[in-house]
Amino acid sequence: MNIKGKYKLFKSFILHLHNSDYRKNHLNSCIPKEWQLLLISDGSFTQTLTSLTGKQIYIDQLRRYTYESINDVHRIRDIWLKDHKSNKLIFAKSLWFLSLNIDLPTTQPIGKSLILYQKDIYRDIHEFYYGYCTYLESKFHYKGPVWGRKYTIYYKQEPLTTLQEVFAPIVVTCFDK
């Protein structure tokens, strides 16, 4: 799964995380500390944002659709996470593997749903990336590069969803408060 269409992200830097030596040697030299804290976070990112901002975080679902591949049925969901002032903080695209047949609410962030329904999960982060997307720049009201990550959430050792998240640069200003 890659962000494409009007959300096309041109990645100028990708750090693949499956090679632990590469990760160990390049993480500190390539990614600023505040971004490392956000990108590596393995808890509910919505809860992290709520803690950083001191305000509730809202979801705005852009689109959701189902499609069938040769081996499975998938659901795609594109969302914004917004703060109390409607600032767009994160764009996320998720690919759901429907074979596990877990019915989670689509009106709230994934992490919140998994906590609410007490699902024991494992997260495998595939990569961090840095790049440009004119569409996201316009939505984030920021001209310049953005950071993102791609990961898969597993439930009972089976992939539940793969997510790509792109973070608005304003997110790191929460550390200044």
Number of strands: 7
Termini separation (Å)?
35 Å
Number of helices: 5
Describe the main β-sheet briefly. Answer: 7 strands, antiparallel
> How much β-strand is present in the residues?
35-45%
Shape-level CATH architecture: 3-Layer(aba) Sandwich
What is the CATH homologous superfamily assignment? Answer: Chorismate lyase-like
**Roughly what is the average pLDDT, rounded to an integer?**
80
CATH topology category name: Chorismate lyase
Protein name: Chorismate lyase
Pfam family, one: Rv2949c-like
Keywords: Plastid
Give a short overview.
The protein is an alpha+beta fold. It is built from 5 helices and 7 strands, in the order E-H-H-H-E-E-E-H-E-H-E-E.
Describe it for me?
- There is one protein chain.
- With 177 residues, this protein is of the alpha+beta class.
- It has one domain: Chorismate lyase (3-Layer(aba) Sandwich).
- It contains 5 helices and 7 strands, in the order E-H-H-H-E-E-E-H-E-H-E-E.
- It has a 7-stranded antiparallel beta sheet with strand order 1-5-6-7-4-3-2.
- A hairpin with a 2-residue loop joins strand 6 and strand 7 (158-167).
- The protein starts with 9 loop residues before the first strand and ends in a 10-residue tail after the last strand.
- The model has no long low-confidence stretch (mean pLDDT 80).
